[in-house]
Prior knowledge:
The complex is a heterodimer of chains A (419) and B (360).
Chain A: H1 9-20, E1 26-27, H2 39-61, H3 65-99, H4 105-133, E2 144-150, H5 154-175, E3 179-186, E4 194-201, H6 206-210, E5 215-221, E6 232-242, E7 271-275, E8 293-297, E9 302-306, H7 312-347, E10 358-363, E11 368-371, E12 377-378, H8 381-385, H9 389-418
Parallel strand pairs in A: 5-10
Antiparallel strand pairs in A: 1-12, 2-4, 2-6, 3-4, 5-6, 7-8, 8-9, 10-11, 11-12
Chain B: H1 6-15, H2 19-26, H3 29-54, H4 65-77, H5 82-86, E1 88-91, E2 94-97, H6 107-126, E3 138-143, H7 149-158, E4 165-171, H8 174-190, H9 197-200, E5 201-205, H10 227-230, E6 239-242, H11 249-254, H12 259-264, H13 291-302, E7 307-312, H14 315-332, E8 338-344, E9 353-359
Parallel strand pairs in B: 3-4, 3-6, 4-5, 6-7
Antiparallel strand pairs in B: 1-2, 7-9, 8-9
Helix pairs in contact in B: 2-3, 2-4, 3-4, 6-7, 13-14
GO molecular function (chain B): methyltransferase activity
Keywords (chain B): Methyltransferase, Transferase
Organism (chain B): Aspergillus cavernicola
Amino acid sequence: xxxxxxxxxxxxxxxxxxxxxxxxxxxxxxxxxxxxxxxxxxxxxxxxxxxxxxxxxxxxxxxxxxxxxxxxxxxxxxxxxxxxxxxxxxxxxxxxxxxxxxxxxxxxxxxxxxxxxxxxxxxxxxxxxxxxxxxxxxxxxxxxxxxxxxxxxxxxxxxxxxxxxxxxxxxxxxxxxxxxxxxxxxxxxxxxxxxxxxxxxxxxxxxxxxxxxxxxxxxxxxxxxxxxxxxxxxxxxxxxxxxxxxxxxxxxxxxxxxxxxxxxxxxxxxxxxxxxxxxxxxxxxxxxxxxxxxxxxxxxxxxxxxxxxxxxxxxxxxxxxxxxxxxxxxxxxxxxxxxxxxxxxxxxxxxxxxxxxxxxxxxxxxxxxxxxxxxxxxxxxxxxxxxxxxxxxxxxxxxxxxxxxxxxxxxxxxxxxxx
Amino acid sequence: xxxxxxxxxxxxxxxxxxxxxxxxxxxxxxxxxxxxxxxxxxxxxxxxxxxxxxxxxxxxxxxxxxxxxxxxxxxxxxxxxxxxxxxxxxxxxxxxxxxxxxxxxxxxxxxxxxxxxxxxxxxxxxxxxxxxxxxxxxxxxxxxxxxxxxxxxxxxxxxxxxxxxxxxxxxxxxxxxxxxxxxxxxxxxxxxxxxxxxxxxxxxxxxxxxxxxxxxxxxxxxxxxxxxxxxxxxxxxxxxxxxxxxxxxxxxxxxxxxxxxxxxxxxxxxxxxxxxxxxxxxxxxxxxxxxxxxxxxxxxxxxxxxxxxxxxxxxxxxxxxxxxxxxxxxxxxxxxxxxxxxxxxxxxxxxxxxxxxxxx
Lengths: 419, 360
């Protein structure tokens, strides 16, 4: 006795597909870096090692936090270089053993085996060395703000923006990061349609983890609002911004935004502060509950508005935080762009992937999520949207892609310098 | 007040059936939406608290929040201030409880208090206050304190920088004094105010419009009760700050004062009373809305105040008050140079105005 008298064949097919999709399926298309180190890179590593030696000399006599920090930064490079030297030395010894006519045949076969394994190890060691040579992003240690805005696609984009917000929140929950939605503006008359949201993730190093997410995320699906069953393509833009700590706690760091000589200093004179509504009498005459604040940075025309909290003071503080983050990101990006312009000739057309370009596609019909930078495709969209392992796999692939790109850039600039 | 267009009401109704109720008081869709969200959050919160306290522990479904939410919106549509419905108002980082009969803290007062804290720290660093012997206590007095928001926020802002503080708030209303004391405990409990506030902030009942034969406000009976002031033979105070009633009767009944404020907030805290004190005879031309400022100005030389910050309602009032302060202080002429200044900043609703009096 079947309790369900009739089951549509499509439903059966769908359930079968979801079972099949539990198996992850990856395709990898990445940038290939050379397996052997270029002499320019090696030279750089050696100079860094020399610097480390002098620094540790100085540290043994007098402790200075700045020196210690620098030494700590270079530390991994020195270690990787040592490993690489050791591996090279053992290879050359083994080679000399092979060339030696007096050696016994038994020893020779052993040496051949050893040589093979060392050569495999050398590849990973040199890879490590390359990775350690990539300088850390200046904001890598900071917590971050994730700004989500729907792009082309109207209501559907707003709906998907809301889903992306949920995705990042669940990712934070799973990783144990503390997150708070500091700004959430819903679209007209809907509970699940964003017009803008800012998520704050208060974990050290969250910027480094999430900076792979900046860019345009494209969604291809049949929207809930569609009546004729057509697939739409919409876009949501995501911007990951560094979140600067409060002034008091970070007086010594390079990110002290109150110091006029700092790169990230904003002159308060250049910021126009506006109330949202022109008011008549104020003070004791009226009891205003409106607490909206809008800040405009006049030279760059960056606008931040905030109205979520009942306290004008809190809104102002958050608006300043976002404004600072936006300007710092813009300045950093401008600097990077300059570097890219310098490199472009040497790099052979590897362009920078800005936030104007589409970085990832979520295709519901094929239950697939593809990142266009690393070329990784994951066929488990549900897990991605739930902020699961698959999302982190994608983010990891993008991070290694970013590192590969940085290595290429370093190699090309370094060899250019030599010429 | 312009009529709300029907189109807007229909749009609000489509958004949420309760939104038109809020539109009556808010007049704009954006602010009505914000208020709806705040009321919604609070209704859910209260219902959840009830569910937790009613049944011990566990994750029970939250019931009854819809009715609560609806009644809150209805109350708001009748003009009850949002702060009285929700029961609190953020002030700086503090959370100030609000009850009927006590004026709700305004955004302007918040801005002026922040500025006053900056000025005080500035004065302290100039006078090398931190290097003085430990006896130096910074004495601050707030007149017409209401909810106690100004003394509490000043304590929160100054206590990390000043070792010893004595802050006193004076108000005529016993309700206000009770509420201010409650607010101190509340904010210490919330962790936004340091434990020191319990001993360093006090609230006293006092009437600053009563006069003795010298023509000074009789706050004589008050001084011995204030811990920081009683120690010295002459009552002294370093900082004086006040947000006194400053609305004229004309503005109150026919002018700019909002209906909701007139109906639900205490007139005592808004309009100065008719004063028939004999000493006022020589100041016949004084306006009724400026009454309190005159009394405060008289206190400034008496208490050897270093900095006085007086909130005013409008630019013209600030100019009048500044002139009055110069006049009164010039007559006393006990101290050296006196600096009278008007401070205001754009970017706040209604532009806060404050008269600053500095003496050195």
